[in-house]
Fold:
Amino acid sequence: MGCAGSSQSKGDDSPKKIRKPKPWKHTQPITRAQLNQMREEFWDTAPHYGGRKEIWDALKGAAEVELTLAQAIVDSAGVIVASADLTTCYDERGAKYELPNYVLSEPTNLTQES
Structure:
């Protein structure tokens, strides 16, 4: 059955279904290597800004897989999804986790390596 907060009998109580983020454009054309570097830097430093490491790890896992598996990851980690594209989430203690678009999806101006 679960706790009272996990009830899905009302539309308000059901977990928010995650969706693909809206398309975004980097300030200048960016290569795959540059995008990967930005992502690595974010994930390496994110836990230092607060929140729990296991939640950051779950969010990283969710950001790197397809939506169905991402939904299962955030649900099992107890992540509260405030924005369906995962840009704003909370843990059960109320800590806020903000993810930039570049860790969630590809930019529209991704270029080939030269």
